[in-house]
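For concreteness, we quote verbatim a single protein encoded this way:
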Amino acid sequence: MTDSRIHRATRDILATPRAIYRAFLDAQAVSSWRPPQGMAARVERFDPRIGGGYRMAFIYPDGAAGHGKTSAREDLFEGRFTDLLPDRRIVEEVQFHSDDPRFAGTMTITTTIEKAKGGASKVTFLAENVPPGISEADHVEGMTSTLRNLADFLE
């Protein structure tokens, strides 16, 4: 029996579903808001269409303890867009580049965007089949940080 690990984070963002959706499909925008607090991103490839994808790295700051999945300072990963429903849903299959088997496998991240009160939109990350090397606490903290960055970027 496989362990289907599921992690979730949600935030209301004062932006339209259209603005949020567009922020996910622009490489420059993604590189500015997607890495969690204190990290930077490097986008190596980005093709925002169903069947297209990206290659990206999250980079830990100088002096940070070695926590990277690919190297001491870097999480390199590739994603493939499996569903894009404009202004409503983005589904990505993500794989980390790592020699550590605890980070192997394909994680599915579904982002849903729903209208909320007061002109805001509710954005939810649902990560399924999360590799066992990623703790729920760390992952939820990272996703929450990313949603905060997205809010700061758009608001």
In short: Helices lie at 17-24, 27-33, 136-154. The chain is about 20% helix and 40% strand. The chain has a mean pLDDT of 90. Residues 59 and 74 are 5 Å apart (CA to CA).
